[in-house]
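Sample pair:
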Amino acid sequence: MLAGKFFATEGATPINLGIGLVGVSLAFGLTVLTMAYAIGHVSGCHLNPAVSLGLFVGGRFKGSELPGYIIARC
């Protein structure tokens, strides 16, 4: 995220050396995609506790497993 905007000055003209918002978005998106492929077969890739909670509310996840998933993710 720190690479989003980084300006260097050469004389009076600033030079943008950052990757911008699109670069930051791609970095985060590709990281989540890589994690989904790496651990998706193990845990269903519930990287966010809100996903596990949503699946529980939708009736697609056991309530007995929910606390363990939330604790492990936090």
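The longest strand covers residues 7-10.
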